[in-house]
Amino acid sequence: MKIIEPYKKNINSDTIIIGHSLGGAFLLKLLELLKQPIKTAIFVGTPIGVKPIENYENDDRFCDFIFDWSKIKNKAKQFIVYHSDNDPYVSLGNGERLAKELGVELTFIPNAGHFNAKAGFTEFDDLWQKLQLTLNN
Predict the structure, then answer these.
(1) Tens digits of residue pLDDT in 3-45
(2) What span, in angstroms and rounded, lies between the C-alpha atoms of 3 and 98?
(3) Is 7 exposed, middle or buried (0-12, 13-18, 19+ CB in 10 A)?
(4) 80 or 52: whose pLDDT is higher?
(5) Can you name the residues that pair with 43 across neighbouring β-strands?
């Protein structure tokens, strides 16, 4: 959390944060600690502890996969959760459970892998469209 300290003063009700992979787990921990809600929290291929996870032991040490969902659910006006069916690192069950815990529908993108260039995923049109809608509201 020390890494976010210099930026905390800029986080407010208009803030949109996107967390990819472990960045999404970091975002969940950040939301637990924030005093006021942000506008939108977006999670892409985020591990939350549902096995299989490729590097579970290392990832568990990063964030422990214990989340206070009641706090988190009140820290963003909108949540968006993306996951794919062929992510080699984070199983689909993570996206399904994350969406369920946040009370939102999972945005499922087939064959997107881990949403990275290695998987051939170099453009994210759906995310861009959702961001445009969020910015206009």
Answers:
(1) 888 988 999 999 999 999 999 999 999 999 999 999 999 999 9
(2) 24
(3) exposed
(4) 80
(5) 19, 81
What whole-number distance in Å separates Cα of residue 61 and Cα of residue 28? 15
DSSP notation for 75-102: SEEEEEEEE-S--SSB-HHHHHHHHHHH
Residues in CB range of 66: below 8 A, 6 or more apart: 49
Q: Residue 33: which of 73, 72, 81, 76 has the closest Cα?
A: 72
Using DSSP bridges, classify how beta strands 76-83 and 16-20 pair: parallel, antiparallel or unpaired.
Answer: unpaired
Q: Identify the band that residue 54 occupies on the pLDDT scale cut at 50, 70 and 90.
A: confident
Which amino acid makes up residue 43?
F
Residue among 103, 87, 17, 100 nearest 46 (CA):
87
pTM for this predicted structure: 0.94
- Domain boundaries of the chain, sorted by first residue: 23-135
Q: Which CATH superfamily is domain 23-135 in?
A: Alpha/Beta hydrolase fold, catalytic domain (3.40.50.1820)
